[in-house]
Amino acid sequence: MNTVTLDDIPLLWRAQSLASLQSHCVPSGYAALDHALGGGWPTPSLIELLSDEQGIGELRLLLSLLRQGQALETSSRRIVLWLAPPFELHATALAQYGLAPHDHWICSVSQPADLQWAMTQALRSGACLAVIAWARHLKPAALRSLKLAAMSGRGIGVLFRPMSEARAASPATLRISLRSRAPALELSILKMRGRRPSLVQIDPREVDRTMSPAES
Fold first, then answer.
1. Is 8 a residue whose pLDDT tops 60?
2. Which one, 41, 135, 142, 180, has the greatest CB density within 10 A?
3. Is 168 strand, coil or helix?
4. At 214, is the pLDDT very low, low, confident or very high (cuts 50, 70, 90)?
5. Distance CA 115, CA 165 (A)
6. How far apart (Å, rounded) are the C-alpha atoms in residues 29 and 52?
7. Does residue 18 surpass a pLDDT of 50?
8. DSSP string covering 18-47
9. What pLDDT does 173 receive?
């Protein structure tokens, strides 16, 4: 009896071949995370960051993405929209991290339907480099709409959600759960196209060391 292997099956897509379908990756500023992600944050994409803790370095994960994306968008003004952040954002802090405060807009929304609508419209418009939102209850259909909006607008949607949502299926491009392991931050990559789940530990302060003197 002849043994059939995967190589004998024509037109078979293997998991590792899917990684090449990613349009672009923006380095995260953390070598270990970039290695696990296959180069960096996927873009365009919908990214879910799951955690029950706040102030553990979760925003520093996005600093390199926002700085590099801001530098790349020289032909048109691209906004970063913050939806329902749990804490107040300060223009001085944004400037200290090399970000232009006037390109960061904040919108407070309390209802899930309003947040979904605002995020969808902002991503679909193509005017936003990224839309960063905090949401608890979003149905799979809403997540699919957000992902489609991010892809059509060529932007990045970032959703901070509670850890309990890790048990639910999601169409997000990338899902990562975050836990504090002070002084480190533990990242469990739950879902990423073309790659297996993995566990990474980083020091959130490392991104500060990559800043140029002009940004510090």
1. no
2. 41
3. coil
4. very low
5. 17
6. 24
7. no
8. GGGG--EEE--S-HHHHHHHTSSEEESEEE
9. 95
Angle at 151 between CA 149 and CA 155, to 5 degrees: 85
Give the Å distances, CA to CA, from 30 to 33, 56, 80.
Answer: 5, 16, 21
Closest residue by Cα to residue 93 from 84, 83, 106? 106
Q: Cβ contacts of residue 146 below 8 Å, gap of 6+?
A: 46, 116, 119, 120, 123, 138, 157, 159
Rg for the chain, CA atoms, rounded: 18
Burial call 170-188: b when 16+ CB within 10 Å, e when fewer: bbbbbbbbbbbeeeebebe
Residue 132 β-bridge partners: 82, 158
Strand partners, 41: 26
Residues 156, 44: contact at Cβ < 8 Å? yes
The CATH code of domain 22-209 reads 3.40.50.300
Q: What is the pTM of this model?
A: 0.83
- Please enumerate, as own/partner, the contacts of 6-14 that have beta carbons within 8 Å and a separation of 24 or more: none
146 by DSSP, 3-state: which? helix
Q: For residues 44 and 50, what is the distance between their CA atoms, to the nearest angstrom?
A: 19
Is the sign of the CA dihedral 189, 166, 45, 182 positive or negative? negative
- Per-residue pLDDT tens for 134-192? 998 888 999 999 999 999 999 999 999 999 999 898 999 999 999 999 889 999 999 99
